[in-house]
Each structure stands twice: as structure tokens, then as C-alpha cells.
Design brief:
The structure holds two protein chains of two kinds.
Chain A: E1 3-5, E2 10-14, E3 19-21, E4 24-26, E5 32-38, E6 45-49, E7 60-61, E8 72-74, E9 83-90, E10 97-99, E11 103-108
Parallel strand pairs in A: 2-11
Antiparallel strand pairs in A: 1-4, 3-8, 5-6, 5-9, 7-8, 9-10, 9-11
Chain B: E1 5-7, E2 10-13, E3 19-24, E4 31-38, E5 42-50, E6 53-56, E7 65-69, E8 75-79, E9 88-95, E10 105-106, E11 110-114
Parallel strand pairs in B: 2-11
Antiparallel strand pairs in B: 1-3, 3-8, 4-5, 4-9, 5-6, 7-8, 9-10, 9-11
The chains are: A mainly beta, B mainly beta.
């Protein structure tokens, strides 16, 4: 079955510390993975997607097919990074996204 | 331009009543999606439309849930005989197409509370 797992409900770090939000997936096909972010009182929005191999707001994520992981990383966290982060797997050719349970990132001053 | 809009923003209803939730996608977006965000279940897929057609209704929780899309634009999600477990934030998203590089843009959501 297709599944996305984010093991941490809450990740709390100090400003300037490195951040890694974990995401593991289960999918028999070729995965297409995304990270979405929801800042307080704002809409859910796309942060980055693995096919673009991009760095957004200092965040990067590498697809590791061997470990079936797509962890989100940032070397130096900022207070404005505090938000809820969702890892998502695109299922087949439907556009349908399967989301993880989400991780709340709290960056303390 | 305008993003995805949803109405109402909040809806409080009594158990057993029917509710209709509306989604206005970004103009020109052929694909439209409904998701539900709840405390216990996280973000779960409900249904998607390509044009006016809904090829995958597998995410609808029960036959009390239905959705339609007309004119390749506005979509309505209807919940009949609401139950307390239907309380959640219902999110709509739209995209240019179904491919991975077609970003899904989300609306602000409708918060449904069933008393």
C-alpha cells in the first residue's frame, strides 16, 4: 500500500541550528515526492519537489530510493521557518497526493 | 491573479443536516482536488476532477459524500446527513494538469463543525 510516514509530530530547534524533517514512503512505482508547508494562518503551499532538484528558502530534499526516504534539510534554521511541514507522494497519473501526518517545526530564538 | 477560493470559510451545522461546500479554482486549471484535514487523520485525499469528470472517487469516506464539477470550473462537495466525525477542514486545490510538475494550489479551506 502507498504510504508516507513522518515520524516526528514536533521538532523544536534553536535558531541557527541544522534541521532535518524526516519522511519515508512506501510505493511500488517510481515515486514523485513533494514537501508542502503551512505557515500560521496561511494556505498550504508547495515548498519543493524532488523532480526539480531545487533549493527553496535554504531547504533541500534528496530522494533516496534505497532507503525510501525524502528528508527535508536546512543547515541553519530561522524563526520564520516555524510552520507545519507535510511530505507528500504523488500517486500514479492521477495527481492525487498522499500526505504524511505532518511535522510541526518550532524554531526558538 | 486570484487564487483558489472556497466558501463558506466556516460552517457550523447540526448532526443529520446536509451541507454544500464550494470551490472556485484558478481560471484555466483543468484539474481540481478535494482533501480533508482533520486532527486524527491528517491530510487525506477525497476526490479529484479532470475537467468535469471524476475518475477516482476512492477517497470519499462514505456514500454520504458526493462531489460535482460543472463547466470545468466550480466544484461542490456535498455531505448528506452529517455526522460529528465529518468535522474537519475541507481543502480544495487546483492545477493546470495532472502531471507532477503541475503544482497544486490550495484554497484557504472550509472549516466544518458538526454539533
Amino acid at each position: 500500500a502507498q504510504r508516507v510516514t513522518q515520524p516526528e509530530k514536533l521538532l523544536s530547534v534553536f535558531k541557527g541550528a541544522p534541521v532535518e524533517l524526516k519522511c519515508n514512503y512506501s510505493y511500488s512505482g517510481s515515486p514523485e515526492l513533494f514537501w508542502y508547508v503551512q505557515y500560521s494562518r496561511q494556505r498550504l503551499q508547495l515548498l519543493l519537489r524532488h523532480i526539480s532538484r531545487e533549493s527553496i528558502k535554504g531547504f533541500t530534499a534528496d530522494l533516496n530510493k534505497g532507503e525510501t526516504s525524502f528528508h527535508l534539510k536546512k543547515p541553519f534554521a530561522q524563526e520564520e521557518d516555524s510552520a507545519m511541514y507535510y511530505c507528500a507522494l504523488k500517486f500514479g497519473n492521477t495527481g492525487k497526493l498522499i500526505f504524511g501526518q505532518g511535522t510541526t517545526l518550532q524554531v526558538k530564538p | 491573479g486570484a487564487g483558489v477560493s472556497q466558501s463558506p470559510s466556516n460552517k457550523v451545522t447540526e448532526k443529520g443536516k446536509d451541507v454544500e461546500l464550494r470551490c472556485d479554482p484558478i481560471s484555466g486549471h483543468t484539474a481540481l482536488y478535494w482533501y480533508r484535514q482533520s486532527l486524527g487523520q491528517g491530510l487525506e485525499f477525497l476526490i479529484y476532477f479532470q475537467g468535469n469528470s471524476a475518475p477516482d472517487k476512492s477517497g470519499l469516506p462514505s456514500d454520504r459524500f458526493s462531489a460535482e464539477r460543472t463547466g470545468g470550473s466550480v466544484s461542490t462537495l456535498t455531505i448528506q446527513r452529517t455526522q460529528q466525525e465529518d468535522s474537519a477542514v475541507y481543502l480544495c486545490a487546483s492545477s493546470l494538469g495532472l502531471l507532477a510538475f503541475n503544482e497544486q494550489f490550495f484554497g484557504p479551506g472550509t472549516r466544518l463543525t458538526v454539533l
